[in-house]
Structure formats: structure tokens, C-alpha cells
Amino acid sequence: MLSRLLKEHQAKQNERKEQQERCRREAIAAATCLTEALVDHLNVGVAQAYVNQRKLDHEVKTLQVQASQFSKQTAQWISMVEGFNQALKEIGDVENWARSIEMDMRTIATALEYVQKGPLQSASS
Fold first, then answer.
1. 12 CB-side CA count, 13 A
2. Is the dihedral of CA 21, 22, 23, 26 positive or negative?
3. Cα dihedral: 18, 24, 29, 34 (round 10)
4. What would the pLDDT profile of 50-78 be if each residue is shown by its tens digit?
5. Does the pTM of the predicted model rise above 0.70?
6. What would the DSSP string read from start to end of the chain?
7. Handedness of CA 22, 28, 31, 32 (dihedral sign)
8. How far apart are CA 82 and CA 4, in angstroms?
9. Is 7 left (phi over 0), alpha (psi -120 to 50) or beta?
10. How far apart are the C-alpha atoms of 47 and 42, rounded to whole Å?
11. C-alpha count within 13 angstroms, C-beta hemisphere, residue 43
């Protein structure tokens, strides 16, 4: 009777140990699946962030190139406008010079007319 109780007790203990081992394995498997799922989920987010970062880097490089080109073009425009302004100033200078020459020529013409008419009028008087 005692030996039978002992055997039953040992059998129940073995059964509990096997049950605990199965539960432990299932828990480990479930924890592994959960961990893999979490890591996969995080990796998707990280991968998307990496892709977005690469896109942003590409856009930044493109923007830098375009900004540089725009800066060069703007410098060319400024140079052209300054040249145009200089040409306008020169035209104004030429115009003033022409007016000055014209005034001098009129003065000379008037003086010549005066000189030419002067002796004729005194002789006729």
C-alpha cells in the first residue's frame, strides 16, 4: 500500500513536472513569437525612418544644388542690371556733353552772327 502510494505520488510528480515543462516551453515559444513580432514591428518603423531619411538627404542635396544655381543666376542678373545702369549713366553723360557742345555752338554761332552783322550795320548808318 505504501509502495503504491509512493508510486502514485511519484507518477503525479512526474506528470506535474512534464506539465510544467510543457507550459514552460509554450511560454518560451509565446515569448519568442511576441519578441519577434515586436522586433519586426520596430524594424518596419526603423526601415521607414531610414527610407525617409534617405529621401530627405536627397532632397537637401537637390535643394543645395538649386540654391547654388539660383545664387549664380542672381549674381549674373545683378551684374547685368549694374551694367545696364552704367550704360544709362553713360548715355546721360553723352547727352549732357551733347547739350553742352550744342550750347557752345549756339554761343559761337550767335557771336559770329553778331560779328558779321556788326560792321555791316555801322557802315550803312
1. 6
2. positive
3. 160
4. 999 999 999 999 999 999 999 999 999 99
5. no
6. -HHHHHHHHHHHHHHHHHHHHHHHHHHHHHHHHHHHHHHHHHHHHHHHHHHHHHHHHHHHHHHHHHHHHHHHHHHHHHHHHHHHHHHHHHHHHHHHHHHHHHHHHHHHHHHHHHHHHHHHHHHH-
7. negative
8. 114
9. alpha
10. 8
11. 6
Cell numbers of 78, please? Answer: 545683378
Question: What is each CA distance from 76 to 62, 79, 80, 86, in whole angstroms?
Answer: 21, 5, 6, 15
Q: What is the pLDDT of residues 71-105, one digit of tens each?
A: 999 999 999 999 999 988 888 888 888 999 999 99
Cα(8)–Cα(20) distance, rounded to whole angstroms? 18
Residue type, 45: G
What are 53's three cell numbers? 531619411
